[in-house]
Write a structure and sequence with these properties.
The protein is of the alpha/beta class. The protein is built from 15 helices and 18 strands. The chain folds into three domains: about 130 residues, 3-Layer(aba) Sandwich (Rossmann fold); about 130 residues, Rossmann fold; about 100 residues, Winged helix-like DNA-binding domain superfamily/Winged helix DNA-binding domain (Arc Repressor Mutant, subunit A), CATH 1.10.10.10. Keywords: DNA-binding, Lyase.
């Protein structure tokens, strides 16, 4: 038997918002057949120019913490590298070595050990909530706690509840925002990506950081498409997040999200590969053929059939109610643009039949419209 001409993500359109390792994630998804559009949602503030980080580093040297919480490996390594650039690395290491050290996960643990700061404890789950419970159970009233955070934007701060609960328990909390972010510049690729999500031009959008989520939401508001973007994310555009911290801003807004068990880039790519076809593909048996409808193509008996935008809009509209008649007026409303000539529907149906390869797969119902002559319909 010949090999199929499609991959697991063939026909699916995925938006990538990552600032770091975007090319790697895009390559993983493209290799699996996806059509990927990438535009970084955020830009990093260079560490040597971060006056807040330098000020708080010096403050911890002057008054060492009792407890250090490391949340990310890249963040801790970046902090130590920045301190080294300022000539403060020996003093910082000496100050932190006097503290109890808690790590959120294996990457942070590795960075701590490389810096000569072995951890006291780390949860198996990589959960910030477990870290919080561990600290609260041990009692932290009066303790000075340095918390290395994921990052922040001017309008968004990570882990607000985490810090608030530490303070409520009586701790003196020093947040260390090791890498901070600005939203991507206006009038560029990122704006186009946000509008594309709002217009449902993607089947999924991937997020690898909560600041990227915040940036997308803020930019949608600035562009006047916030309602449309949230509607899309609550409907046909699936939000795929690297982990629960990244997903949190969306969950608060009632947006369904999904994430892999392990918070890793490769795991996110595999998760999208496994989940998106289950969430988005629609499969029906029509006129003796197995028809699978994807984002921008259709598989007929396992063979990829390229579709024009009008043909895709038509097949999606017909597949909304397999076997039922869809009027020409309804099909016209589904077509791209805002045309009023029903002749466009006849042209779209003709092209759809040609692309499918069997004109019997789209039946004409005289004076009423068109339908898919379904043998057996089922959602997949």
């Amino acid at each position: 038997m010949s090999e199929p001409d499609w991959s697991p993500l063939t026909g699916f359109r995925v938006a990538v918002t990552s600032a770091r390792r975007a090319d790697e994630l895009a390559a993983l998804l493209t290799r699996r057949g996806a059509t990927v559009t990438s535009a970084a949602a955020i830009e990093m503030v260079p560490l040597p120019d971060d006056d807040e980080l330098r000020h708080r580093t010096q403050a911890l040297i002057d008054e060492p913490p009792n407890i250090v919480v490391a949340t990310t490996g890249i963040g801790l390594r970046g902090w130590m590298a920045a301190a080294d650039g300022w000539g403060l690395a020996p003093e910082l290491t000496a100050a932190l070595s006097k503290a109890r050290v808690v790590s959120r996960g294996p990457k942070a643990t590795g960075a701590l050990r490389a810096a000569g700061l072995p951890e006291e404890w780390s949860p198996d789950s990589e959960s910030s909530r477990e870290v919080l419970h561990y600290l609260l159970e041990g009692g932290i009233a009066g303790a000075r706690i340095a918390v290395q955070l994921h990052g922040a934007t001017a309008d968004w701060d990570p882990f607000p509840e985490f810090l608030d609960e530490l303070r409520a328990a009586g701790a003196d909390v020093v947040p260390i925002r090791v890498y901070r972010w600005h939203p991507a510049p206006r009038h560029g690729d990122f704006d186009a990506l946000v509008v594309g999500i709002a217009e449902e031009k993607f089947d999924a959008v991937s997020f690898t950081s909560a600041p990227a989520v915040a940036s997308v939401l803020m930019r949608a508001q600035e562009l006047g498409v916030e309602d449309e973007l949230l509607a899309a994310l609550r409907g046909s555009v699936h939000a795929m997040c690297v982990g629960p911290v990244t997903a949190r801003p969306l969950v608060r807004l009632g947006v369904p999200t999904s994430a892999p068990e392990r918070m890793r880039l490769g795991a996110l790519a595999r998760h999208i590969t496994d989940e998106l076809p289950l969430l988005q593909a629609r499969t029906v048996r029509v006129a003796g053929h197995l028809l699978e409808i994807r984002g921008n193509c259709v598989l007929v008996d396992g063979a990829v059939k390229a579709m024009s935008p009008a043909a895709m809009a038509t097949i999606r509209a017909l597949a909304q109610h397999p076997g039922a008649v869809v009027s020409r007026a309804d099909l016209l409303r589904a077509l791209p643009g805002s045309g009023t000539d029903t002749h466009a529907v006849e042209t779209a149906v003709l092209r759809l039949r040609t692309a499918l390869g069997d004109k019997k797969m789209v039946a004409t119902v005289v004076k009423r419209g068109y339908r898919l002559p379904v043998d057996e319909a089922y959602a997949s």
